[in-house]
Design a protein that fits this description.
Layout: H1 8-11, E1 20-23, H2 33-42, E2 47-50, H3 62-66, E3 70-75, H4 82-90, E4 94-97, H5 100-112, E5 116-119, E6 133-136, E7 139-145, E8 149-160, E9 165-166, H6 175-180, E10 182-193, E11 212-215, H7 234-240
């Protein structure tokens, strides 16, 4: 039951060149910042990453891109990363874009031991090219294969030393399903507590899925796009009265 490690560096000590890694997060929300930074410092190459997006330029998974560590990315959205666009167009990175619901279900299936499933999403588009199609009750479906990984990097709000995890609000996103779909799941948490301190009914990821856990040192929690209300001019204030 000893799953606590001292640092992100210790947690990723066996990540190897060519590994497939799932990385939690939606945009910059709920992503394992400390594990990503440690992986960038480690410098392993030819990685296949499975994540909703690839961070932004200079932060999150964007650090791995800048280091040339990612060979193949599987995800759903790439709109905030100019470097990724350049690397894909140049052929430096191979990119698989998947409809977001299908992406989620492929990961969930991987964690549930389901090798493949059928979905109507993508029928009649390039998404369906090269995939088996079948008809069910008069509707066409395409077969999608499950996604699994060597490692899953997840970020939780709280975790106990046995590896039970609780996520907070939107930061929950892809983390719970990824935690189930990898050979080794590594969790970084904001608060590491003793066993018994978490309400069992509030646990989102049971300890059985988590191999290593540590308390992160630095959480920047950057905001991708800050939108504020424009201050009204004097004339607009007068009119509004």
């Amino acid at each position: 039951m000893h799953k606590v490690v001292a640092s992100a560096e210790e947690a990723i000590q066996d990540v190897f060149d060519g590994a497939t890694i799932m990385v939690g997060g939606f945009g910059l929300c709920g992503m394992p910042e400390n594990l990503i930074r440690a992986l960038a410092r480690k410098g392993v190459k030819n990685l296949t990453t499975i994540s909703n997006n690839v961070g932004v330029d200079g932060f999150g998974m964007g650090l791995l891109l800048a280091n040339g560590q990612i060979r193949h990315h599987i995800g759903t959205y790439v709109g905030e990363n100019k470097l990724l666009e350049q690397m894909v167009l140049n052929g430096t990175v191979h990119l698989d874009l998947i409809p977001q619901g299908t992406f989620s279900e492929r990961i969930r299936a991987g964690g549930a031991g389901i090798p493949a499933f059928y979905t109507p999403t993508g029928v009649g588009t390039i998404v369906a090219e090269g995939k088996e199609a079948r008809e069910f009750e008069g509707r066409t479906y395409i077969m999608e294969r499950a996604l699994k990984a060597d490692f899953a990097f997840v970020k939780a709000w709280k975790g106990d030393k046995w590896g039970n995890l609780v996520y907070r609000k939107t930061a929950r996103n892809f983390n719970p399903m990824m935690a189930t779909a990898a050979g080794i799941t590594i969790a970084e948490v904001e608060h590491l507590v003793e066993p018994g301190e978490l309400d069992p009914d509030m646990v989102h990821t049971p300890s059985v899925f988590v191999k290593r856990i540590f308390q992160g040192e630095l959480f920047e929690k950057r905001i991708e796009k800050r939108t504020v209300t424009r201050a009204a001019t004097t004339s607009e204030k007068v009119v509004s009265r």
